[in-house]
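Sharing a chain and its predicted structure for anyone who wants a worked example. Both blocks are below, sequence first, C-alpha cells second.
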Amino acid sequence: MVFILLLVVVISAILMGIFPIFFKRWNEVNVEEKYGTLKNCTKIIYKEIAVIWSKPLHNAEIKYLSKDFLSEAFNLKNYSRLFDLIDRYLIAGILTGFLGYIIWIFSLRFGEVSILFSITSLQFIATWITGYLYLKERLTPLQVMGIVSIILGVALIAPQV
C-alpha cells in the first residue's frame, strides 16, 4: 500500500509539474503572437466584454434581463477573441493541472501531509525535464544544485513513508 501511495503522489507531482509547460507554450503561441503580453491580452478582452455587460448601466432603456441585452450578451460572435485563445495547449494545461491536484487531494487521505508534500517537490524536476525536452530550456549550475538537493531530500524522506 505504501508503494502505491508513493507512486500516486509521484504521478500527481509529474502532472502538476507538466502543466506550466503547456501554459508557457499557450502563451507563446496565442498571447504573444496576437497581443504581445498577457496583460495587454487581458486588457483588450476585458474592454470588449465590459462594453457588452455594462450597457444596462449606461443605457436606461436596456435592462439586464431584457431580450436585447440577453441576445447580445450570449451571442458567441462577441466573444470571438476570447475563443481564439482556447487551443490544445490551454486545454492540456488545465487538464493536467486539474488531474494532478485531484490525485494529490485523494492521496492525502492515506498518508502524512508533511511527508507527501515533500515528495511533491518532484514536480520541479518534472517541469525541468519537460522544459528541457519540449521547450529546449537550459539549466544553470545553481539550478542543477537545487535539483540535486530536491532528489536528496526526497530520498531522505521516502523511507519514512
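Comments welcome. The mean pLDDT is 86.
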